[in-house]
C-alpha cells in the first residue's frame, strides 16, 4: 500500500497541473471560439472552469502530502505517528486500528516524540492531557 501512496503523491501534482492547464485553455481558447450557443453546455463548461471541488481536493492533497511520519515497529501498541506542521496535527495509529489526532501540536514536541525511547511513556508524560484530541477511527 505504501508504494501506491508514494506513487499517488508523486503523480497527483502533475495531474492537478494538467487539469489546471486544461481549464485555462478551455477558458481562453475553446469557449470563446467554439460558437457554442447552448446555454446548458456553456454552463457545464463554466462549471469545469470554476470547480470548487477540484480546488478543495487540490488543497486537501497539499495538506496530506506535507507530513512527516514515524513508524514504531518496536512498539507493542503504536503502529505509526505522523505530523502535519501546516495544520499542527499529530496523528497516531494504534495497532488495534484506532486513530487519534492531537490538535495544536508543536514542532518542538514532535522533535522530542520521534527520538523517544518509548512512545508509550512519551505519550503518557508529554501528550495526553496537554493537547486537545479526537478519535477519527
Description:
This protein has 137 residues and is of the alpha+beta class. It folds into 2 domains: 2-65; 68-135. The protein has 5 helices and 5 strands, in the order H-H-H-E-E-E-E-H-H-E. The protein has helices at residues 2-34, 39-49, 52-65, 107-113, 119-127, and strands spanning 68-71, 78-84, 89-94, 99-102, 133-135. Strands 1-2-3-4-5 form a 5-stranded antiparallel sheet, covered by helices on one side. Helix 1 (2-34) packs across helix 2 (39-49) and helix 1 (2-34) runs antiparallel to helix 3 (52-65). The protein is elongated and about 70 Å long. The two termini are 19 Å apart. The model has no long low-confidence stretch (mean pLDDT 78).
Instruction: Bin the helical content.
Output: 40-55%
Which regions contain 5 or more consecutive residues with pLDDT less than 50? none
Strand content: 15-25%
- Inertia-based shape: elongated
Q: What separation lies between the terminal Cα atoms?
A: 19 Å
Q: Number of helical segments?
A: 5
- State mean pLDDT (0 to 100 scale): 78
Strand order of the largest sheet: 1-2-3-4-5
Order of helices and strands: HHHEEEEHHE
Could you say how many structural domains there are in total?
A: 2
Largest sheet: 5 strands, antiparallel
The radius of gyration over CA amounts to: 22 Å
Query: What's the number of extended β-strand segments?
Result: 5
Structural class, judged by helices and strands?
alpha+beta
